[in-house]
Amino acid sequence: MSVHDVPRGRWAEVLAQFSRAHHGWLTRVTRVGRGPELLSSTDWQPLDSIALAPAGAPVAQIRVCFWNAPPVSVGAPRALAVDRREREPERALEIDGGGGEFVRVVFRAPGVTSSVRPGGAEPVSAVRVSPDRPSCRESDR
């Protein structure tokens, strides 16, 4: 693993690039608190977007939006880093959420792996997307 810090002035650009490059990839968000204590972890879900929210404002939160699941917001982020390996796509984003919270956003390319669900594995091709789902941006209005 090779983790590279992202300067705060580049966060919006880097997150927009991740949204484009990883759109539709299976994504899991894991939050760890002090101790370390597991605070929460999402199921593997297709990624819609990752962005600063509200867009264009001073950094208030980083928001991870999925196709068919509620978004995950990381408030008061203090640091953003990218986990990448040579000649491989980025594996994860790491966010220092302040207050002792650490958030890791992990990616899996669609069609390459299966998402593990209780009761067995579900092929990525079996993940259903609701055609009438609101986008994360629409739900912010």
Structural write-up:
The protein has 141 residues and is mainly beta. The chain has one domain (3-113). 11% of the residues lie in helices and 45% in strands. The chain contains two helices and eleven strands. The strands form two sheets. Strands 1, 2, 3, 4, 5, 6, 7, 8 and 9 form a nine-stranded antiparallel β-sheet that branches. The longest helix has 12 residues, at 11-22. It is globular and about 35 Å long. The termini are far apart. Residues 113-135 have low confidence and may be disordered.
User: How does the overall form come out from the CA principal axes?
Assistant: globular
Overall structural class, as computed from helix and strand content, comes to mainly beta
DSSP summary: helix tally: 2
**Termini, distance in Å?**
38 Å
Number of strands: 11
Q: Biggest β-sheet, characterized?
A: 9 strands, antiparallel
Q: What is the beta-strand fraction?
A: over 45%
Estimate the helix proportion, in percent: 10-25%
Briefly summarize what is shown.
With 141 residues, the chain is mainly beta.
What labels describe this entry?
9-stranded antiparallel beta sheet, 141 residues, mainly beta, globular
List the helices and strands and how they pair.
Blueprint: E1 3-6, H1 11-22, E2 26-33, E3 37-41, E4 45-53, E5 61-66, E6 72-75, E7 79-83, E8 92-98, E9 101-108, E10 114-117, E11 120-123, H2 136-139
